[in-house]
């Protein structure tokens, strides 16, 4: 089964998720600067989620590049990841509209953890399909960054009830770590 | 007429339908766990419809893979299927917001039945175009699963007025049957 | 300049327009059959506009198939057509929510007339680029159907103030005429 | 890294932005001509933003045509541009619903300035990757138009507080200048 249409569908869904998040940026009521003030937490959440979806799209882009083929399992593992990503607009708005309250911050972390877990499942499905000695397996290595992100997100969920700003700091830090380009797949592509 | 752009348009519409369904997951009002409670039926409906649209996309993906060409009839049969699929966000929300009441459950079944009927029409249009001896016809076989799903959905509509949970169970069961990958087209592709 | 990305962008915009129209099908308030009743005019408008956008996508699909190249003028003529098509969700909802009142029916006709005029401009831009003897020009012929549709839509605007059902009948009739597949481009493609 | 999927993702996001802007054109309340009157400023803003997003898509289309390859930096520079473009629906609606009040007009200019700055960053990232002697660098030249647009948008922000119509005139003028097709990249493509 060719990977072309899976890539196209994934790009389509990612493009739509990243754009419909902006629908939760409501038009400010009023026409002066004070009307913009209550929008700041929502805007910051939008920035964070835009970067997170961008990171996933970027990683999927690079990963599928080293992939030779897909099967039904990979296809559903990919749809499973897109499912949790598709909840990001609503969890983002929940966190923003409640000005980083504890429960919404924990729910946002839960969604990020489920995305990271779904990503790990997709990686495993591709690994099984391509085998230990494939270019894909070599590029992936031990996937420390992926597993560490998942652990950080899981830790952030209960920490939100201690102090939600610890959790928010974790979300920002993990995003920054991923913004540094993932050179693993790039190195294999260049060879 | 090439099949490439029909595939691209179908992928685009499926990607948008699957993502705009999330717009009906309203941001919970309130910032504690109790605010999330009334969202559960809506969330479960979203999961079910996400899987249903995923199944259709998956099946269309595999089916068009064995197809050699399309004509105007196929194109409109495909648009007809996309029409009933495009109603899934609104029928999903109708069922979720009314906590699986009888009429909304029946309406959701009607939409599923119309999707299944439109899929059967598309299959017939492709069958006529490619002939009895084509790779497409051999891959399709008797299409028992497709016809059985249609019958199950039609039965679920009146059953919703006996007990709506019977109908919901039918929707879940049919989805589970399709989640098992359709090996018919895959077998032909591998040959 | 290659035509591939213009096709892809056009498909994308058409796929989005055809799907966001469904956002105006509000979830019925109430859980019985009576809740569905006020939705009927909106639903019928949605069906009509779905078919209209489907016809445009179908025609653009066939037309770009016989086209060799595009330039800046074609690109903007295409965006101009997409602009008027993008207004179809809002004019559709305006007509449906007001149960086919005169002004909304006239406004819907105005949008259809502007789409048809934009289509004529796009055809002219492609004609100028490819010349009289091109496969495109031969396929197009005199474009009687396009010009007659434009005339019918322009006539429907004032007729809405005589009796709006005359205009609605015109919209349905023109759509039915186009649903009969346009064999002009198909004939050239087959040769 | 191939440029194909970056183009596809960019086209997807641009197609979605250009279409969801129409969601802010609310269905008029009432069924006569007076119901349409308050929609005019919103409609005019929609026209302006549709043209602006169209110009960016057109420019990105032409620019990526002369590009040989992309890297992680280009990918994120492109996402950065898409981020500010994705705010255009909300800044457009803010300006339209407040009938071109000063603060919304300034905010719209800020968004346009940030888009233009992001475009300049993307151009720089592509320039660095391809080198001084590349077809890309020759096509780009001094990029006077890009830098002049950025300067005009920056000037328009404070000018909105003197008289907002000066700023609106600047937005319209810059759009008209770009509507004249950018022959730089076209010239290189033809050679």
Automatic annotation (TrEMBL), chains A, B, C, D:
Membrane-spanning residues: 12-28, 40-60, 72-94, 106-129, 150-180
Organism domain of life: Bacteria
Membrane topology: Multi-pass membrane protein
Reactions mediated catalytically: K(+)(in) = K(+)(out)
Family: Belongs to the TMEM175 family.
Primary site of residence: membrane
Organism: Mesorhizobium shangrilense
Pfam families according to UniProt: TMEM175
Keyword Membrane appears in the UniProt entry: yes
Keyword vocabulary terms for this entry: Ion channel, Ion transport, Membrane, Potassium, Potassium channel, Potassium transport, Transmembrane, Transmembrane helix, Transport
Descriptive protein name: TMEM175 family protein
Localization (cell): Membrane
Listed InterPro entries: TMEM175-like
């Amino acid at each position: 089964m060719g990977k072309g249409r899976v890539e196209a569908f994934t790009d389509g869904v990612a493009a739509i998720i990243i754009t419909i998040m902006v629908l939760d940026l409501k038009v400010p009521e009023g026409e002066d600067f004070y009307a913009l003030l209550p929008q700041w937490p929502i805007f910051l959440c939008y920035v964070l989620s835009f970067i997170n979806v961008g990171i996933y799209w970027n990683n999927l882009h690079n990963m599928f590049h080293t992939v030779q083929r897909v099967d039904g399992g990979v296809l559903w593992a990919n749809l499973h990841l897109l499912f949790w990503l598709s909840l990001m607009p609503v969890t983002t708005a929940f966190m923003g509209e409640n000005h980083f309250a504890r429960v919404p911050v924990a729910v946002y972390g839960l969604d990020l953890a489920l995305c990271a877990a779904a990503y790990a499942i997709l990686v495993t499905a591709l690994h099984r399909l391509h085998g230990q000695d494939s270019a894909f397996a070599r590029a992936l290595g031990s996937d420390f960054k992926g597993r560490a992100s998942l652990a950080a997100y899981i830790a952030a969920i209960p920490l939100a009830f201690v102090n939600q700003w610890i959790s928010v700091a974790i979300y920002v830090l993990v995003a920054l770590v991923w913004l540094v380009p993932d050179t693993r797949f790039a190195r294999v592509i260049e060879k």
